[in-house]
């Protein structure tokens, strides 16, 4: 049995942000993560981040993870890796599976930062070995040093599809084509430009319709789509590839938050079904905070700021208030607004506002 | 088709010891500590299991231990997620058939 002030589930940027802010205020923090390495998906981000200095612009993702992990350790955050949070028990404890043993954790507040999972895309042949998520190829290339294929078709021109394609080229693969069902490239043009300058054909209004091969992918069939994203018969082309990467978005991993009875809402712009929350990242269950991709799929910088906000507010509500907390929260909210500024983030910003309205309504008139 | 990346303009990989293991009775080598899936891919293996009902081949899919598509039998134990389980010297790895049986593939 363990007794802590703050239990943080997920050691990615959001969870680390929450753990750091909680511990900085004197709360006893336990951070658990099911992976053997902390840092969430930052550890496979070898590209430099954009934005301002406050958001670690110019620093590579894995370096940001190392920085946050050392801060958390210095502040006395206890971190358990290879540890799964299984769910909320009837007595209010959270059951964790650590080194083959179940343990009960009693926490004043729980911060869920469970992240997101990649979407799949079903088409004939999609289960053949060689069809995989872009994230899998990225993890294997950037972290493990294994290139999953030589000749690749990428599906999806969001930032994941663009960045992973470029990184695989750096590692020695050839991107035979990148298809995007939308009529235009959906990720940042600076990333798309790197591929186009290297001669990668980016085919908008195209999708993959079939993966063919005996025991593994040997070729892909792509086709033009109409305005309703339906493949147009007669426009099929075959591309000789050994690997098809799916970069078709992510959805919040809300299983655990559902077990905590956090109310959910559907927001397509944020990845789908997700827990609602107020402007302090508090879910409909006052014991539970949600942040990062779980609270709507965005970016690592946004996740970190949301985590920090959850960390400050949860610590404050447990009696660890510090002078200047109100100002710090306002600053984080302002920072989140700036990260969601600009036309490309408009849909996310609007969706996030609706989520916070619903989440805020849970607490209206109660405090 | 797949290969080990020896040089990369940005990424930096840990130094690892080359060790031997068996896959379906065939001797292979890989790097200690790399995921079993990475070792198999670098040895040209892309089919890790066959499905329970229709026997279809499956391989690496999510790469981070979430989807369970890449499970193999390791030292007689089925349903081991090859993408997140580190390779160790002397491992006896087998293609998983269906749901797998404890004690044999």
Describe the secondary structure blueprint for this structure.
The complex is a heterodimer of chains A (367) and B (105).
Chain A lengths: L1 E8 L3 H12 L4 E4 L28 H14 L3 E3 L2 E6 L5 E5 L2 E12 L3 E3 L12 E3 H11 L1 E2 L3 E5 L3 H12 L3 E7 L8 H9 L4 E3 L1 E7 L6 E6 L12 E4 L2 E4 L3 E3 L2 H5 L4 E4 L4 E4 L12 E3 L9 H18 L7 H15 L6 H16 L6
Parallel strand pairs in A: 1-2, 1-6, 2-3, 6-20, 8-16, 10-11, 10-16, 11-12
Antiparallel strand pairs in A: 4-5, 5-6, 7-17, 13-14, 14-15, 18-19
Helix pairs in contact in A: 1-2, 1-7, 3-4, 4-5, 7-8
Chain B lengths: L2 E2 L13 E6 L2 E6 L4 H7 L6 E2 L6 E2 L12 E4 L2 E5 L10 E3 L1 E2 L8
Parallel strand pairs in B: 2-8, 4-9
Antiparallel strand pairs in B: 2-3, 4-5, 6-7, 6-8
Write a short abstract of this structure.
The complex is a heterodimer of chains A (367) and B (105). Chain A is of the alpha/beta class and 367 residues long. In chain A, 31% of the residues lie in helices and 26% in strands.
Helix content of chain B: under 10%
Secondary structure class of chain A reads: alpha/beta
Major sheet of chain A, described briefly?
A: 7 strands, mixed
Radius of gyration of chain B: 14 Å
Biggest interface found:
A-B, 37 and 34 residues
Structural class, judged by helices and strands of chain B?
mainly beta
Q: How many strand segments of chain A?
A: 20
Q: What is the succession of H and E elements of chain A?
A: EHEHEEEEEEHEEHEHEEEEEEHEEEHHH
Number of continuous helical runs of chain B: 1
Average predicted confidence as pLDDT of chain B? 92
The coarse overall form of chain A would be: globular
**If strands are numbered along the chain, what order do they take across the biggest sheet of chain B?**
3-2-8-6-7
Q: What is the straight-line distance between the termini of chain B?
A: 27 Å
């Amino acid at each position: 049995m363990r007794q802590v002030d703050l239990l943080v589930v997920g050691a990615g940027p959001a969870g680390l942000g929450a753990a750091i802010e909680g511990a900085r205020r004197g709360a006893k923090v336990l951070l658990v993560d099911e992976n053997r390495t902390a840092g969430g998906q930052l550890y496979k981000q070898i590209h430099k981040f954009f934005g301002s200095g406050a958001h670690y612009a110019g620093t590579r993702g894995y370096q940001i993870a190392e920085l946050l992990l050392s801060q958390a350790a210095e502040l006395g955050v206890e971190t358990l890796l290879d540890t799964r949070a299984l769910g909320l028990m009837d007595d209010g404890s959270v059951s964790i599976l650590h080194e083959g043993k179940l343990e009960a954790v009693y926490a004043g507040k729980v911060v869920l930062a469970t992240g997101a999972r990649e979407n799949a895309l079903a088409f004939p042949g999609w289960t053949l070995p060689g069809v995989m998520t872009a994230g899998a190829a990225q993890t294997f290339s950037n972290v493990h040093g294994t290139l999953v294929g030589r000749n690749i078709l990428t599906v999806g021109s969001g930032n994941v599809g663009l960045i992973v394609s470029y990184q695989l080229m750096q590692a020695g693969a050839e991107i035979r084509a990148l298809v995007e069902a939308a009529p235009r490239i959906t990720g940042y043009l600076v990333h798309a430009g790197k591929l186009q300058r290297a001669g990668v054909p980016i085919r908008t209004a195209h999708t993959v319709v079939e993966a063919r091969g005996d025991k593994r992918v040997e070729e892909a069939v792509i086709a033009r789509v109409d305005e309703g994203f339906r493949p147009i018969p007669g426009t099929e082309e075959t591309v000789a590839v050994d690997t098809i990467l799916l970069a078709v978005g992510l959805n919040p991993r809300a299983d655990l938050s559902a077990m905590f009875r956090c109310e959910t809402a559907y927001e397509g712009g944020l990845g789908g079904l997700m827990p609602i929350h107020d402007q302090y990242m508090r879910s409909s269950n006052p014991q539970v905070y949600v942040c990062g991709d779980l609270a709507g799929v965005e970016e690592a910088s946004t996740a970190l700021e949301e985590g920090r906000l959850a960390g400050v507010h949860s610590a404050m509500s447990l009696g660890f208030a510090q002078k200047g907390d109100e100002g710090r929260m306002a600053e984080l909210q302002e920072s989140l607004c700036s990260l969601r500024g600009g036309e490309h983030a408009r849909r996310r910003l609007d969706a996030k506002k609706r989520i916070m309205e619903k989440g805020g309504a849970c607490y209206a008139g109660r405090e | 088709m797949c290969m080990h990346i020896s040089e990369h303009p940005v990424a930096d990989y840990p130094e690892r010891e080359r060790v031997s293991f068996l896959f379906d009775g065939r001797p292979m080598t890989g790097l200690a500590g790399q995921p079993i899936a990475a070792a198999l891919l670098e040895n040209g293996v892309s089919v890790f299991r066959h499905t329970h009902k229709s026997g279809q081949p499956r391989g690496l899919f999510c790469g981070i231990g979430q989807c369970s598509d890449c499970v193999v039998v390791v030292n007689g134990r089925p349903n081991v997620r090859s993408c997140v389980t580190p390779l160790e010297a002397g491992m006896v790895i087998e293609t998983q058939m269906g749901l797998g049986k404890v004690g044999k593939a």
